[in-house]
Amino acid sequence: MRTRLFLLDLGRMHMQRSGFLGDLPKNDPIASEVVEFPISACLIDGPQGRILYDAGCHPDAMKPNGRWPQDFQSQFPWSGDESCHLPNRLEQLGLGADDIDHVVLSHLHSDHAGCVEFFSNSQVIVHRNEFDAALLAHKRREDDGFYAWRDIEHWRMPDLNWRLVEEQEEELSITEQVTLLNWGAGHSAGMLGLELSLPESGQVILASDAVYSLDNLGPPLRPTGFNFSSVKAAQTVEKIRVRALSHNAQIWCGHDMSQFLSLRCSTDGWYE
Ligand SMILES: [Zn+2]
């Protein structure tokens, strides 16, 4: 069996363009335009197991008294039908949460870690500093929606099998075809990516929010609007750009609408 890469469509969110391009002048009308962008995850199904990269938004994110605070729901609304909830997307492929061996979380923001609680049979891989940052926000009862307090409340700590990636673990091989890339602080406190080697599609770097969109990649490199460390976020983008060049790899961005629409989603097939 060959390794297959499935792109899962997990709905859309909306925010002002200044969130994508942090260098737009505040008074530029383009900065306040509301832009629609995709939420996605990737499933890698191979002979050495199944890996899920990111876990979307919780199905109850957008309700009155939903998982996300009301302010966040208004500022960054999610939309999509039932099929866009991660458990349903997996079910379309004949899979349940229990069939996933490893869940790699690029980071713990609410549009990437919303469904973690369903994966109590998987090893959940996350950067230690990111884990600490989310738990600290939870302990302080901070709920800005990026780390969604009510999601974290449901992580049922003893049941989830966390594998925390340490700062010095720069690269880890998960399977023969899949390498975990530790980018550290940048967009958030600790970012993780994956690089896949596929026999037909070649090298693919799953960058998630380390590269929001191809606009950020440039050249010239342009910053996003939300960063834990702007300097380190820019260094990560450059690191990814250089790696992609030397490995002849595609970069799949976290929230690039045109790139997303150009890719094949799991409803239409896969990459191998
Ligand atoms: Zn995101």
Blueprint of the fold:
Blueprint: E1 4-16, E2 34-46, E3 49-53, H1 70-75, E4 78-79, H2 86-92, E5 102-104, E6 123-127, H3 128-139, H4 149-153, E7 161-165, E8 171-173, E9 178-184, E10 191-198, E11 202-208, H5 214-217, H6 230-247, E12 249-253, H7 257-262
Parallel strand pairs: 3-5, 5-6, 6-7, 11-12
Antiparallel strand pairs: 1-2, 1-4, 2-3, 8-9, 9-10, 10-11
The structure holds zinc ion.
Description:
The chain is of the alpha/beta class. It has one domain (4-262): 4-Layer Sandwich (Metallo-beta-lactamase, Chain A). The protein has helices at 70-75, 86-92, 128-139, 149-153, 214-217, 230-247, 257-262; strands at 4-16, 34-46, 49-53, 78-79, 102-104, 123-127, 161-165, 171-173, 178-184, 191-198, 202-208, 249-253. Strands 4-1-2-3-5-6-7 form a 7-stranded mixed beta sheet. Strand 8 and strand 9 form a beta hairpin. 46% of the residues are buried. Zinc ion binds next to loops.
Give the C-level CATH assignment.
Alpha Beta
Strand numbers in spatial order across the main sheet = 4-1-2-3-5-6-7
Tertiary shape: globular
Distance between the termini: 10 Å
Bound molecules: zinc ion
| Number of self-contained structural domains | 1
Number of helices: 7
User: Would you tell me which CATH topology applies?
Assistant: Metallo-beta-lactamase, Chain A
Rounded radius of gyration (Å): 17 Å
Strand percentage lies at: 25-35%
pLDDT < 50 stretches = none
Structural class by sheet pairing and helices:
alpha/beta
SSE pattern, N- to C-terminal: EEEHEHEEHHEEEEEHHEH
CATH superfamily: Ribonuclease Z/Hydroxyacylglutathione hydrolase-like
Main sheet makeup: 7 strands, mixed
CATH architecture: 4-Layer Sandwich
- Oligomeric state as shown: single chain
* Mean pLDDT, all residues: 95
Instruction: List how many beta strands DSSP finds.
Output: 12
Helix content: 10-25%
